[in-house]
Design brief:
This protein has 676 residues and is α/β, with parallel strands linked by helices. It has helices at residues 2-33, 39-60, 83-91, 104-107, 109-120, 122-130, 136-155, 157-160, 171-187, 198-208, 214-241, 244-250, 255-277, 283-287, 302-328, 339-346, 348-376, 383-388, 395-405, 410-422, 427-445, 460-474, 495-509, 521-530, 552-565, 574-582, 636-639, 644-647, 659-670, and strands at residues 290-294, 390-394, 452-456, 479-483, 513-517, 533-537, 601-605, 627-631, 649-653. The strands form two sheets. It has a seven-stranded parallel sheet with strand order 5-4-3-6-7-8-9, sandwiched between helices. A two-stranded antiparallel ribbon has the order 1-2. The longest helix has 32 residues, at 2-33.
């Protein structure tokens, strides 16, 4: 037992070094893949590294002092399966019929060593299922490969470091370790319902990663600064080897000045020349997928980069140069100085204190602004960025912000669709793509098949809902589609055809798609209470006004009640009735009540029903979405700050269309002489 404890202690002692080595690559990987570093994911990763480190120590430690030592018991591999059972039966005094002898099991090395061999890879099986999302057969193969690596480490004398094996290669270890991995895999199964879904953690990280965090920007700056310093150092070493110091001294230039200018030139190359050549990215920013743009998200130019980093350089150098000048003055020579220098020399102590207070206040302001930016999830703005009219954003953030600024009026979206159809991509094909985009968004927020309710209307927005419902049902999701009328009675095309095709396909394939035609309140509420996601495909961009007609108004209210008040099994009675009567979730407020725990994910197709896509007017009632998937282009009502409580995060689905090219074509047609 003491050997196991000592191995764990060694793991605790060496883990900080391993963590320090992997932290930078880990951060870069996380920022490149997800855009942010969630604490839960980091905790799991570092705990996994610690576990694998300790597990390997359990296998290879203690190490023999003599590299050429021969260990007799390890010289011949043990290749007989279940040999530990034979040894146990040969030497045990335990009798199953005599409970007083059972305590001997715990003292039998054949038993507790077998138990420890099983326990060794139990955590691996847990990590494989929960974090890495592996299947049982993948966990089996990975568990076997891991224990085989351990046993080969022993057989080869730690891969040739020792001349002979110093620990026994035992086929029983392969069997028991692999069994342990599978035990861990099955043990973690019941806990999956309670543990946060790592896929949702990753999705949240991607959403958070749209914003350029302070840590991400600081890391990119440190990478650039370190590489620039290393390049300057290498250049100076090469120059010294070629005799540059002597040549410079002969020309009256000091080597110290040459070093200073080499560092400045290197910084200029990395922070001004490099982003000029790469259209806004330094080496570190390219590595972490950041970009320098102007405040209106338009591309920056070389003079912007020069101003941004030149000011930063001055802000970093000037205060310390001023402090050096203050401290360097000799008060005894004040009579020979100018008025300003004499004043500084005679008040050195007070000026140093003032400098310290100023720098402390400045540092505190940085911390406060950084915390504020983190809490409010907004950009951390620095003075050099304001003065140079630049900011650092993520590549994804730049793309989204440019798309948000390139809004199209609802009428222009119709013209865009007609141009696309004229070029061969029919409205039916666009609807199919839109439905798949909505289904993909549902799967992103509900990774495993769970009940989904799709509310559909009579127009083409409803057609998108029919396509999404079929796609989800085919993927194994139990889908309840709520429609105001039969598919063949829908008023719009291609929505009618899409609905009929979806209904026919669901019937032929036998997928779990249940269609409710104008259901009564209890049936609708039952479906909504069980849902893990609710999709709003009722009205779309065609809605305008202040009142939503029935039955859509009642459906929206039912979805919103589920979001803000929970299912009907909770909060029943007088208090619940008063809440309904107040209608807090129907008021046109800038802030809405908190979403209740276990509320379904709410997704809107194109625009939340009840919200005017053109004006942003909030109707009565309006569907409250966590996420809105809008098609082809942002509409004016979706980018208004006042509509955010109803739209949630807005994701643009371009549907495989080069929207910018069609926008240019529309603008050309709109010019005098252009053909409509």
């Amino acid at each position: 037992m003491s050997g196991y404890v000592s191995n764990i202690v060694v793991g605790f002692l060496t883990f900080p070094l391993i963590a320090a080595v992997i932290t930078l690559p880990y951060m870069v990987y996380q920022y490149r893949k997800f855009g942010s570093i969630p604490w839960l994911r980091s905790l799991i990763v570092y705990s996994f590294v610690f576990y694998m480190l300790v597990a390997y120590y359990m296998v290879i430690l203690p190490l023999p002092e003599d590299h050429s030592a021969i260990v007799p018991y390890a010289a011949t591999p043990q290749l007989a399966p279940f040999n530990f059972v034979r040894l146990f039966l040969e030497g045990t005094t335990v009798s199953l019929s005599d409970p007083s002898t059972w305590k001997g099991l715990l003292h039998d090395p054949n038993v507790y060593e077998a138990l420890f061999n099983v326990l060794l890879l139990v955590p691996l099986g847990m990590y494989l299922r929960y974090y890495f999302r592996r299947t049982w057969w993948q966990a089996l193969l990975i568990g076997f490969a891991t224990t085989l690596f351990y046993e080969l480490s022993q057989l080869t004398g730690l891969w040739g470091i020792y001349e002979h094996p110093y620990r026994l290669f035992d086929v029983d270890d392969l069997i028991l370790n692999t069994l342990g991995a599978m035990v861990g895999f099955w043990l973690v199964g019941p806990a999956l319902r309670a543990l946060p879904d790592i896929r949702l953690v990753n999705e949240e990280a991607r959403e958070a990663g749209v914003r350029a965090s302070v840590t991400r920007r600081a890391l990119s700056f440190l990478v650039d600064f370190a590489v620039a310093g290393a390049v300057a150092a290498l250049a100076l070493l090469a120059a010294r080897a070629l005799g540059a110091p002597d040549a410079l001294a002969a020309s009256g230039v000091s080597w110290m000045d040459a070093q200073t200018w080499a560092n400045r030139v290197s910084l200029l190359a990395f922070f001004v020349v490099a982003p000029t050549l790469t259209h806004g990215q330094t080496l570190g920013q390219k590595l972490l997928r950041l970009r320098i743009v102007r405040h209106d998200v338009s591309p920056a130019h070389w003079y912007h980069y020069l101003a941004r980093y030149g000011l930063l350089y001055l802000f970093a150098i000037v205060p310390f140069a001023a402090l050096s000048g203050i401290v360097g003055l000799d008060p005894s020579n004040a009579s020979e100085m100018g008025a300003v220098s004499a004043f500084v020399a005679n008040h050195q102590q007070g000026l140093v204190v003032a400098w310290l207070v100023f720098m402390g206040a400045w540092a505190l302001s940085l911390v406060v602004r950084a915390v504020r930016a983190a809490l409010k999830k907004c950009s951390f703005v620095m003075l050099n960025g304001l003065l140079s009219n630049t900011r650092v954003m993520t590549e994804e953030g730049v793309r989204i912000e440019r798309e948000r600024r390139a809004v199209l009026d609802v009428g222009d979206v119709g013209k865009l669709e007609r141009l696309i159809a004229a070029d061969g991509t029919s409205m039916a094909e666009l609807m199919d793509r839109a439905g798949h985009a909505v289904a993909d968004e549902v799967r992103a927020h509900v990774p495993d098949p769970a009940p989904v309710v799709v509310l559909t209307g009579t127009g083409n927005n409803g057609g998108d809902g029919w396509v999404a419902a079929l796609e989800l049902a085919q993927a194994g999701y139990p889908v309840t589609l709520v429609a105001p009328d039969l598919a063949e009675r829908l008023s719009a095309e291609p929505a009618r055809t899409a609905a009929q095709d979806a209904f026919a396909a669901a019937s032929e394939q036998g997928v779990a798609l249940r269609v409710l035609i104008a259901p009564d309140t209890d049936i609708l509420n039952d479906a909504i209470d069980k849902a893990a996601a609710i999709v709003d495909a009722l009205l779309g961009t065609g809605f305008s006004g202040n009142e939503v007609r029935e039955p859509f108004a009642s459906w929206i209210r039912a979805a919103n009640r589920r979001r803000f008040e929970g299912d009907r099994g909770r909060g029943q009675g007088r208090h619940r009735k008063r809440t309904h009567e107040r209608g807090e979730h129907e008021r046109p407020l800038k802030t809405l009540p908190n979403k209740v725990k276990h509320a379904p994910v709410a997704l809107a197709v194109d625009v939340p029903s009840g919200l005017s896509a053109q004006t942003g007017t909030v109707g009565h009632p309006t569907f409250c979405a966590d996420r809105t998937v809008t098609m082809l282009a942002f509409k004016p009502g979706l980018v208004a700050a006042s509509t955010t409580p109803w739209t949630g995060g807005v994701k643009l689905a371009k549907l495989g269309v080069d929207v910018s090219a069609y926008r240019a074509k529309m603008e050309a047609l709109a010019e005098p002489g252009g053909a409509e």
